[in-house]
Amino acid sequence: MYPGLVLSPPAGGGVRIDPPVVLAPMAGITNAAYRQLCREQAQDGGAGSATTAPGLYVSEMITSRGVAERIPKTFDMITFDAGERVRSVQLYGVDADVMGTAVDILCADFGVNHVDLNFGCPVPKVTRRGGGGVLPWKRDRLAAVLTAAVRAADRYAVPVTMKTRLGIDDDHLTYRDAGRIAEDSGCAAITLHGRTVRQAYSGEADWAPIAELVELLSIPVLGNGDIWEASDAVRMVEQTGCAGVVVGRGCLGRPWLFRDLADAFAGRDRRTLPTLGEVAAMVRRHAELLVGLSGERHGLTDLRKHMAWYFKGFGVGGELRRRLAMVASLVELDDALAQLDPMQAFPATELGQPRGRQGTPRERVVLPYGWLDSTSLGDSDISDAECDVSGG
Fold it and tell me: Is 121 a catalytic residue?
């Protein structure tokens, strides 16, 4: 048995989560439908109670400027299902005043219960402008943005957390200072992804700095990176002492991983190995939720990207895979799913294997001119770093 996680804002109150598991925000993936699907699986594994949430399921990342300027496209992404007891949103921003305004709107107008701030994006078009995972190099700006967010959220007793990486590269690490700044700013927790910006999603995550941050800070530290199975999550907690885990790519095409995580953190030695028929039923459930969220046409279009992940490793013919990847209606989906062999066993070769994007380390991290000359940004305007971003 492992204790749950409590995220407490300075004003008191907060959010109680059991098991201490967080679904990482992923662009184009963690909309309200997928969050509900993962939460249902966790509840099937016995997660949650009358007083604790069955894990934490964070929305797709949105920009603070999009919220502050009340851009309709941004507001359309702030959608929750009726059973979402903890409304969790990840924000990205580089300006303290804009961030404070955005947090206030989220809490007051949308009833958000938790705000996570992303400082981990490795995308070159963001880092070259001083945003994403390279912003923590500028300690003064990181402190200003975090302080503004916490101050705004604290009026509603809403906890603020942050996610970051080890640093820009091995020669420019930022996680220790970022952790101290998060603690001093009143953040309820910090998530550390065990990779640098230069690594992006390549190679293996280094968990040792997570353990180091646990020893350094008094606030909870959550670990992120290379959690492909529930056993990896338990191993991370045991090796690092982190208060919980954040799961991203490991659940792509495998929402039942949250059932396994609930079992593992409750001390139950079980693993879900669905047959192809059971995976097909999961795909159908996912389709229903997406249709309910955005209609049949858009919902089925959204589902297409998940097909390769759901059927990875299964013996599904090329023509049928193409049909599944092109479905445009529930009728087409049902017809394609009916062609699958429902008794085919789960491919054991896929267990413990990386999923989603990986790639190779970048030759270098693209930075603004002179970025590394000082750890202070001052009043410099880097607002264009908030355009067209994705998580990290």
Answer: yes
